[in-house]
Amino acid sequence: MKTLQHTVPTGTPMAMTRTMIALFAFCCGAIVANIYYAQPIIGLIAPDIHLSGQTASLIVSLTQIGYALGLFFLVPLGDLLENRRLLIGTAMLSIVSLAATALARQPGLFLLVSLLLGFSSVSVQLLIPLAAHLSPEASRGRVVGGIMGGLLLGILLARPLASFMADHFGWRAVFGTASILMAAITLLLAATMPSRQPDHKASYGQLLRSLATLMASTPVLRQRSFYQACMFATFSLFWTAVPLELTQHHGLNQSHIAIFALVGAIGAIAAPISGRLADAGHTRPATLAALAVGALSFLPVLLVPSLGVAGLVVTGVVLDFCVQTNMVLGQREIYALNPAIRNRLNALYMTSVFVGGATGSAIASILYQHGGWTWVSLAGSAFPVLALLSCMRQKGRA
Fold this sequence. Notes:
Number of domains: 2
Distance between the termini: 40 Å
CATH class of the largest domain: Mainly Alpha
Order of helices and strands: HHHHHHHHHHHHHHHH
Mean pLDDT: 84
CATH superfamily of the largest domain: MFS general substrate transporter like domains
Low-confidence stretches: 1-6, 8-13
Number of helices: 16
Radius of gyration: 20 Å
Oligomer: single chain
CATH topology of the largest domain: Growth Hormone, Chain: A
Structural class: mainly alpha
Largest sheet: none
């Protein structure tokens, strides 16, 4: 284990071994799962902490807002502070947040710790730029794609695990167990993470002020951020609303929802595929395809309502595949811009993505309660269409 704990000079790419890729992928998946455990079980959490049905989706959206705040205020520090120490400190905060979530009994306190849980889970976004830094240009897409596959598996498996555990042991057991898992992950990272001290010498205030300049002066960053924000809005909208549809319209219990979410994990195969497409120079056509197919993924249930749960499964798998494809393509483009500011570029990109995700989650309950799955489908299709139209207007890079 100690063989991986070494100092990495800034600006010196090195080969990422399969062991390191697997380690980074596992840690990313385990950490990012923290912000998705609540998504399929809000129907159990809300009445227990006295939240109404219309405000239940605040649990998910506040966690994602917290994540976006962490991305904006914490992740840029990866260009300033020693990466390993920053990552460990952030992971320790997530342990406390998960434990507090398991114990909270008042709605205000629960929503506050949900925000903190999202804020403290951004350590995953310190791992991914570090992996990109450790990888040479020729294999960066493959490495990022492999790690993103672990991240997406964490997102997708968090839902079935949470549903299954909540059904058999109660929803509080989900967060209590997650806090124990995070403690183990933190110990693993402390023992194996390579150290990296950035060369950047600016103050924290200067670092934050530079974010606006970077966004304004980097067209590729703006474009890719908008595309993925739209896609993640649809992703979060679907996965926040579909448990309501499955329980209220199709009579499924939490264990059934767990199986449904597990099937959606098939979309994780997109990560290595899209990474290789990016390395081969096919970013633009792959982006157009991901956005177009993502917009069409809601059609099965809209056109043939009798498909029922089977149609929802098709939407979930196809949508997850498209979202993951577009995510890896975007990160591959952004990580190629400037290694010295990679954490800030990633912070801006992922902040935009999770603002989109929080938007999708926030409107899910409202759309479903007023217009059922039809309104959810129409809104879910609209976001990728906006991104597709924007992408089609770009003459150069996607």
